[in-house]
């Protein structure tokens, strides 16, 4: 029964492709060609099932029992008040708005800063063919993940951000993704972010959903290029509704001497799957990955990270933390891959979890795959409940149970939040989680 | 410098690679229901045993060969294997004098003189050649205590009620591809039963050897420790050097009843193939134990041989307060591949498990740790600690760690740590300037690195294991 339905979904999307390719035929032949290849890959791969090792714990079968309709031309109108209400107060940033994955010209700021170009992906196909052809689809691993291949096949909506060489962005770039789709809709969006050599930028990808508790699935792929000696700080904040499912794939390509620092905070969302793949492609590249996830109710958060050390002298540091309550499920799958030539690699990976109830589940799989000998790689993982001795200490100092628990959880989460360098954003996240910990 | 030494390791020879010229009684190549019947008939088995084998065989036909392990090898042709080969000698042996002198020589070469063992070390040995048990020592003395230690086929005849009760209770034939194959064609192995409240006075030991060409070895070990008993069991293995790959697919089942303890140690030294990866044993083994209340199972393994090792000695912690341990040293060299680790399944309350795994890879080898720690919903206060370290020697080898951790109870405490590194130049330098040569420094460091595991081995094996380590890694400088 299950499989029969799944074949339906796959066939449905494959069938939908022909019409899509006709309507949205790009003037850029390269794009058309890549889409055509991707639909073939998707046809071969299909959507993942739980038999797929990478989706073993994600319960993807249950999710895909919903008969999703792929909407490749979703309604992207939204009033300005709603949009403004979603911005973080006190944050001075270039504001970019995507509604249902569609870049909105009216709602987004016009960026006057020199060296920073932002437009819809479709416009970029035509206006910047050289950059697009150099980077677009170059970093995706659509061959192995059905969602990723599906996204490429229907690549059309999304945002293109380009930071020119030697540009130091004066303000963070804030990309607000708002979901407001109808029930049972699949939305897809694709972003291309290019930070050229010696440039510096801060990017915030913020995900929120409005209009009720509709069951939606959004499948977003971002390709991020960090040129040599460039520096990109990338924050992802997910705050979707409890029926919203999201597959968020980021393929990051880091050149020599470049830094890529990322912070992923999943505050809410029904079913969240984050694929974060970072390739350290040039010597002495550096990546830092921080993550915090707080599933409650029946939420599921699945973080898959891959740090691929392809060149010598690169360093990577990863710290993911989670607090799981109610019947929540947290999954962490981190892989550090060190290739033959990546000597003098220094990689560290750590995953820590707190379970608050007996019905909560944590599945963690930190992996090392190493083919070079002169390396220092280590990983650690620990899972348990709140430290009873610490609780006792706090209680003995006259702090009541609720506050003592909240304090300990806050301290635990603070390791991640502290790495947010944009003060208003940090305060925003801080206030949300401290409020939540008190109510746990 | 490092280059020379690496070459030296790759050229160190496998000293157990001789072939013993014993006449063997073999089944024709290939696998079919007839072969299963043939094996069963050869062993004069009762009807229920044959039925069990056939059920397993029919199930095996429906299964697919697993491919998820991090190892690569050409597809095995299951029709090109001899599934039964026994030294041609059927009469009952009463004393060692009657054993084929060729066979005794084999054991002497292996360094396990049965006679000497009998007199001096007090280790009861069950020797298995080409999957048939040829000699069990100390049987009578153990018999006085009510301990049963015999070959599997003897046990089928003498203690059918025990075999029926326990065989397949931990590793059913439906478990996996190789377990099903084993259940269909296993030829012999060891069986051991320790009665209630008995502490086995000596180490029990089995030596496995594949001798004939083109054969697969499929043995089955079943150890049952009844309430409050204790047993320590050793297993060692070697094989001749051959160009072809030979398959070894064994099943080991341990049952530790309330308050009982089983300590199972393995020194696995199957022929690893030559330095170009030609020949060698495929070691695809299913090992698993069940612990009841307050029981304990401890696996210790030193893996230096086999072209491909694929095994995960596991413990199901079913009873409350039970304990599982896994200590492993896996060394791979040349073209060897190892994918090994453990599974600790916590079901009972207050269950504890410890995993210490040390991998050493040299040459062009690949060494993976793959493990599962699962804390069930009802496993309150379960505790696990895992540590998996890898040491790399040379820039052509790989070391990998794939731990799976599944936690479903908030009172569980699970910790996992892993590191990968090479032997530090500063460590070598420190030894050098104290007048210790490079060679000795490596020996010192590797031994120190593995000490936690080697310490868990019984005396007799610890010596052998240390020697094996030094042979495998002679003079390697990272």
Structural summary, described in words:
The complex is a heterodimer of chains A (about 450) and B (about 475). Chain A is of the alpha/beta class. Chain A has helices spanning about 1-25, 30-45, 60-65, 80-85, 120-125, 130-135, 145-155, 390-395, 400-415, 425-440; strands at about 70, 95-100, 100-105, 115-120, 160-165, 175-180, 185-195, 200-210, 215-225, 230-240, 245-255, 260-270, 270-280, 285-295, 300-310, 315-325, 330-340, 345-355, 360-370, 375-385. Chain A has two domains: about 1-280, no CATH class; about 385-440, no CATH class. Chain A has ten helices and 20 strands. In chain A, strands 1, 4, 5, 7, 9, 11, 13, 15, 17 and 19 form a ten-stranded mixed sheet that branches. Chain A has a ten-stranded mixed sheet with strand order 3-2-6-8-10-12-14-16-18-20, with helices on one face. Mean pLDDT of chain A is about 90; it is low at about 1-5. Chain B is α/β, with parallel strands linked by helices. Chain B has one domain (about 1-30, about 65-155, about 185-470). Chain B is about 25% helix and about 35% strand. Chain B contains twelve helices and 24 strands. Chain B has helices at about 1-10, 35-40, 45-60, 100-110, 115-120, 140-145, 150-160, 160-165, 175-185, 425-435, 440-455, 460-470; strands at about 25, 85, 125-130, 130-135, 150, 190-195, 205-210, 220-225, 230-240, 245-250, 250-255, 260-270, 280-290, 295-305, 310, 315, 325-330, 335-340, 345, 350-360, 365-375, 385-390, 400-405, 415-420. In chain B, the strands form three sheets. A ten-stranded mixed sheet of chain B has the order 4-3-7-9-12-14-17-20-22-24, covered by helices on one side. In chain B, strands 13-15-18-21-19-16 form a six-stranded parallel β-barrel. The N and C termini of chain B lie close together (about 10 Å). β19 of chain A pairs antiparallel with β23 (about 400-405) of chain B, so a sheet runs across the interface.
